[in-house]
Amino acid sequence: MNSYKEKFEKMRLAGNLAARTLDMLTENIKPGISTEEIDKLGYEFIRDNGGFSAPLFYRGYKKSLCTSLNHVVCHGIPSDRILVEGDIVNIDVTAIVEDHHGDTSRMFCIGKTPIKANNLINVTYDSMMKAIKILKPNIKLGDIGYEIQTHAEKNGFSVVRDFCGHGVSTKFHEYPNVLHYGKKDTGTELSPGMTFTIEPMINSGKYEVKVLPDGWTAVTKDKSLSAQFEHTLGITENGYEIFTESVKGYHKPPYL
Ligand code: MF3
Ligand code: CO
Ligand code: CO
């Protein structure tokens, strides 16, 4: 059998750097900082720790990470926008180390945020973790989508259809597509050595999204809030490994 041990070692390095970047940013994300300053901090930290930011120059993208605020679903572009009390923001970091990619994102709350936003963030995090906990060889991709969709909809939220998780290793985005909705026992079977992301985008309103004229920023059509978390994972002989686990125990807000 073709061993995936070396691949996993490199995924661990890349995943760990991406996670440590979010850990570092956690202490800096507060009212008054602009998303461009967050981008710069992320770029420098990854560079200074032996990696490269995968988004930079990816398909014409000009920043090092994504900052998706409030009704932005994903791929928000860092700008001079300053974070203010009440904002919720997703920071999505992808680091390349030894040609391998670690892709992870977390939500951040700026000061005191509305209860509805906090609830959305909790449900989004829990939907990702419920899907991760079932991972092992021989389950199917549809089982992942089922876990996420069931939990999100049970709480009155909706699952974004237009973006999905993805295979990830030496390429940023590769086979398979990992849908965040679906039916049990459908789709591709998981096997040891597979590496991919789970990154549900959950909306407080309807699931429809549109991409702004900048070609990147995806927003909810109904302007409702959206939340997302992302981990890069590997399938092992009898379960899974999370490559992008926080070193500081920062899982979801509040990060105390
Ligand atoms: N990190 C995103 C993902 O989870 C992709 C961002 S592509 C970029 O797949 F170019 F916008 F950075
Ligand atoms: Co991803
Ligand atoms: Co990502």
Sketch the major β-sheet.
4 strands, antiparallel
| SS-based class | alpha+beta
Number of helices: 4
- Give the CA-based shape: globular
One letter per element, helices H and strands E, the order comes to HHEEEEEHHEEEEEEEEEE
How does this structure look, described?
It is a single chain. This protein has 256 residues and is an alpha+beta fold. The chain has one domain: Creatine Amidinohydrolase (Alpha-Beta Complex). It contains four helices and 15 strands. The strands form five sheets. Strands 1, 2, 4 and 5 form a four-stranded antiparallel β-sheet that branches. The protein has a three-stranded antiparallel β-sheet with strand order 3-12-11, with no helix packed on it. The chain is globular. The termini are far apart. The mean pLDDT is 98. The structure holds 2-amino-4-trifluoromethylsulfanyl-butyric acid and cobalt (II) ion (2 copies). One cobalt (II) ion binds at residues 92, 94, 103, 105, 199, 230. One cobalt (II) ion (CO) binds next to strand 4 and strand 5.
Structural features:
256 residues, binds 2-amino-4-trifluoromethylsulfanyl-butyric acid, 27% helix, four-stranded antiparallel β-sheet, Creatine Amidinohydrolase, three-stranded antiparallel β-sheet, alpha+beta, binds cobalt (II) ion
Write the layout of secondary structure elements.
Elements: H1 5-26, H2 35-48, E1 52-53, E2 66-69, E3 72-74, E4 88-97, E5 100-109, H3 115-133, H4 141-154, E6 158-159, E7 165-167, E8 174-178, E9 195-198, E10 201-203, E11 209-211, E12 218-220, E13 226-228, E14 231-235, E15 240-242
Antiparallel strand pairs: 1-4, 2-4, 3-12, 4-5, 6-10, 7-8, 9-14, 10-13, 11-12, 14-15
Helix pairs in contact: 1-2, 3-4
One cobalt (II) ion binds next to loops.
